[in-house]
Structure formats: structure tokens, C-alpha cells
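Hi everyone, sorry if this is the wrong subforum. Our group has a chain we'd like a structural model of before ordering constructs, and none of us has done structure prediction before. Sequence below.
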Amino acid sequence: MNVSNCKVIDLPKIQDPRGNLTFIEGNAHVPFDIRRVYYLYDVPGGAERGGHAHKGLSQLIVAMSGSFDVVLDDGTEKRRIHLNRSYQGLYVCPMIWRELDNFSSGSVCMVLASNVYEESDYFRDYSSYIAARSE
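Answer:
Right subforum, don't worry. Here is the predicted structure as C-alpha cells:
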């Protein structure tokens, strides 16, 4: 897998004068079953999140409120994606190093994951990640 396998996905948006609605269905809007949902909020200015890769986990990252950047890195190519629409999500495939930064005040980042939390699925050291990619 490489950075080009990661992409912004437009999610369904039902517009209504009373407020818009977006929904996400596993294996329909995202290419995986959704097994876990978590969100980041109250991220202090200048802070970074992420800084890891997953061996087998797929994710959809959504800016529910505010904005932030996701930096994707496959060891060869890096790409920075700015998320600021709650009806778009960034699909991140396995074996991609990701970092989140540039959080706006009050931003909320929701992540849909293809599996439950499993520490053994993580690369938390960049040099170990690069070594595993070249195997």
C-alpha cells in the first residue's frame, strides 16, 4: 500500500433547511466493516496527534467540526490533506504512517476503524515502520 491508495471520500449529504444530515455505512461508503469509533477533541494549539502506522487497520478520518491536516507518509511519498468538511472523510489504508496537526480551535476529529484496538497492530517508531516496509 502507498499514499496513492488513500483518498478523500465524499459522504452522502442530505440537505435540509433544518440542518444537514450525513451518514456512513460500513462496506458501502467505506471499504471495510466499522468495528470501532473514536474521536479527538480539545486538542491544544500546536499539538500533534497520530505519529504511527497500522499493520492491518483501515480508517476513515472525518473533521466533524473545525479543521486539521493529515500528513500521510509511505516512506517514499508524503502528502498533506486538509480536512474541514463533515461530509468528507479521508480513507487511510494499512501500512501508511499518519500524523495529524494544524487543529483549529474547537475541532473534532472522528475516526472509524476496521478493527478494535490492538496494540500489536501499531508501528509507533518510524524507523521500525520503514524497515517493515522494505521487507
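For your construct planning: The domain at 3-133 is CATH 2.60.120.10 (Jelly Rolls). The chain has a mean pLDDT of 94.
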